[in-house]
Request: fold
Amino acid sequence: MPEVLVLVDHDGEHVNKATYELLAAARRMGDPAAVVVGTPGTATRLRESLARHGATSVHAAESTDAAEFLVTPAVDALELAVRETAAAAVLVSATTDGREVAGRLAARLDAGLLVDAVDLDSSGVVTQIVFGGSYTVRSHVTHGIPVIAVRPGAFEPEEHPVEAGERKLALPPIAPAASARITARRAAPAGDRPGLTEATVVVSGGRGVAGADGFKVVEELADALGGAVGASRAAVDAGYYPHQYQVGQTGKTVSPQLYIALGISGAIQHLAGMQTSRTILAVNKDPEAPILGLADYGVVGDLFSVAPQLTREMAAR
Ligand code: FAD
Reply:
């Protein structure tokens, strides 16, 4: 079976759940091979958990300054891995960084690029969401090795224990002049909630929440469900909630098991970031709100009455 290269998203100690999803997707096309970019020793630390999720080999692209640059080391590493293996495809997560890596890699390899993949099959046919979610299309790459950016949450992570060999990739020295260097890192305020793109439940508030204080109802419901909090752009622009929680075309893309939209109308740009959620529940006081046309479950009512009832119900279980 040919290798399918998967770019590993990690914090140096732990592998991000989205990577396990990529490994599950890669197994449909061949043998998943993990590409770890990081400081020396990272691949060895991550190998066991990658092997438990089906990575048959781990390509280590390590250097002392790999973590100081934005996407360049990952692009270099994947290019090297592609040139040194007969890989069938490259999969990355369709995060902000992942999309940039995928675009740059495809340009370097003169290869076809498919973004926002939500499904793929063994022949390389990919289902993708295009034009901000207006269409779902099936595509395949006709030139070069397919570079595929997969939406986080589109695949289920699967345990599939295998033996993974480790192989070193000789990462070329990074030319600082040609790369964006990270000068400082500021951690987002830590909390007990799961990350927005990793969560199995996301509860989002929109302009209907009517203020920063109103987001307390959103947070309480999210906490009762063990979920993450999201926001529409209108809520973020109005200063109700911080920007890093924005869901949509110009925010984060989420695909949880359950997405709850509170006081969100359902503009196409918002739908672009959440419409692949497994189940969508919308609460809106306007029966004509477009989100109710997409939602699996719609409640026409005041969110300040409906959401606390849901929270109490969940807390009682
Ligand atoms: P509104 O459209 O104002 O809807 C508020 C809803 O709340 C209404 O349906 C109303 O009936 C309901 N409501 C009010 N009070 C209550 C109540 N008490 N109980 C229940 N329901 C109530 N938007 C995004 O979200 N994400 C993006 O990434 C994004 N990117 C964009 C990119 C571009 C280039 C552009 C042009 C726009 C983008 N937008 C994005 C903005 C988008 O077009 C909408 O303006 C935005 O999504 C609207 O947010 P909203 O649904 O919260 O507000």
